[in-house]
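lol forgot to send this yesterday, sorry. struct tokens for the thing we talked abt
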């Protein structure tokens, strides 16, 4: 750290991304990337003519992608905000709506705490229930005599399905939180919602709640993690707030090729739905195989599993797998330190994972 660094950032602890090793080939099940290539139309879009146009700035209004997103989600373009990955969308949301603080669960996407600290936003951290579900009551505030709730007096962000647990909450609970906190924004981070049961997405609630902002990404289900495109859907007023910040900071935030790729990914619904179906099938298969080995596997609605064994400690399993060429994600937070997060990949990758675990357990 230099002597010139702004003092307000000296205590900042950056987010730690999942390992991206270059030293050898791994079965990579640690960062929730898709095992499938992008849709054929995406690959075709990355062509020579598009590369030639890189000398030109991208469209600052992102019109083609906004139009395609509006069509896909039956919204207007004024309900759409696009960011350089959903992390940028979340950062702008914390900047825009964090004046009174932001509440979120204790076990969730660890970037929330980093973004809050970066933007000097006070965090109000709510413990999960003992079964790792979100404690909905904790996000409603005090109960009034008439049975309604007074809200928390601050904004809220909840990953649904949650990460790293993989557990989803229902739309009724999201509605309760929005109803109780009408004076503040409720952000529902749906990075993994495409792998969940139908009817999980809170996009359906956007027309009903002016204070609801739903955030999604192209990184997982649409195989575009390297393109860095995310988006949010909300009321026109909330979207305009985010646009004010974007245009005050980085109006050309999504490059030409990434935008074109995202448009093509949205168009190919058949490819998208087929891949999501395969992930759900592989998730069920891997969960069953892990349970046969005595693992406790939380009920996931994502493209990953959160699992622990009573035969081997979580960190030891992570290291043993890595030594044998299989990467998973381990967290040192005490509440979940016995768990590992396992990305659901191809059936071949899942078989490699299971076979490797069997060898490890046989040596315990």
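and heres what i got for the seq, position by position
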């Amino acid at each position: 750290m230099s002597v010139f660094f702004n003092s307000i950032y000296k205590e900042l602890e950056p987010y730690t991304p999942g390992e991206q090793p270059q030293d050898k080939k791994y079965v990579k099940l640690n960062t929730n990337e898709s095992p499938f290539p992008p849709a054929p139309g995406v690959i075709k879009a990355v062509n020579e003519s598009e590369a030639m146009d890189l000398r030109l700035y991208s469209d600052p209004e992102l019109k083609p992608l906004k139009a395609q997103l509006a069509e896909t989600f039956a919204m207007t373009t004024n309900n759409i905000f696009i960011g350089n990955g959903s992390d940028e969308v979340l950062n702008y949301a914390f900047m825009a709506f964090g004046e009174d603080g932001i509440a979120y669960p204790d076990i969730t996407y660890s970037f929330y705490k980093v973004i809050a600290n970066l933007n000097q936003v006070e965090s109000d951290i709510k413990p999960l229930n003992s079964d790792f579900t979100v404690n909905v009551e904790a996000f409603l505030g005090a109960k009034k005599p008439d049975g309604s709730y007074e809200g928390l007096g601050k904004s809220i962000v909840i990953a649904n399905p949650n990460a790293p647990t993989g557990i989803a909450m229902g739309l009724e609970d999201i509605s309760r939180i929005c109803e109780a906190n009408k004076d503040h924004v409720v952000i529902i981070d749906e990075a993994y919602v495409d792998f969940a049961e139908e009817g999980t997405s809170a996009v359906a609630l956007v027309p009903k709640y002016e204070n609801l902002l739903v955030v999604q990404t192209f990184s997982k289900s649409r195989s575009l993690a390297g393109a860095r495109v995310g988006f949010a859907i909300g009321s026109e007023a909330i979207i305009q707030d985010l646009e004010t910040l974007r245009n005050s900071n980085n109006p050309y935030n999504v490059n030409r090729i990434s935008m074109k790729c995202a448009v093509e990914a949205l168009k190919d619904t058949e490819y998208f739905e087929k891949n999501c179906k395969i992930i759900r099938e592989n998730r069920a298969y891997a969960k069953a195989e892990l349970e046969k080995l005595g693992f406790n596997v939380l009920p996931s609605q994502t493209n990953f599993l959160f699992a622990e064994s009573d035969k081997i400690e979580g960190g030891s399993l992570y290291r043993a797998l890595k030594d044998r060429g299989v990467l998973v994600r381990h967290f040192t937070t005490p509440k979940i330190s016995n768990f590992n997060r396992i990305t659901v990949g191809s059936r071949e990758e899942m078989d490699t994972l299971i076979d490797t675990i069997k060898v490890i357990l046989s040596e315990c």
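The chain has a mean pLDDT of 94. anyway ping me if u want another try
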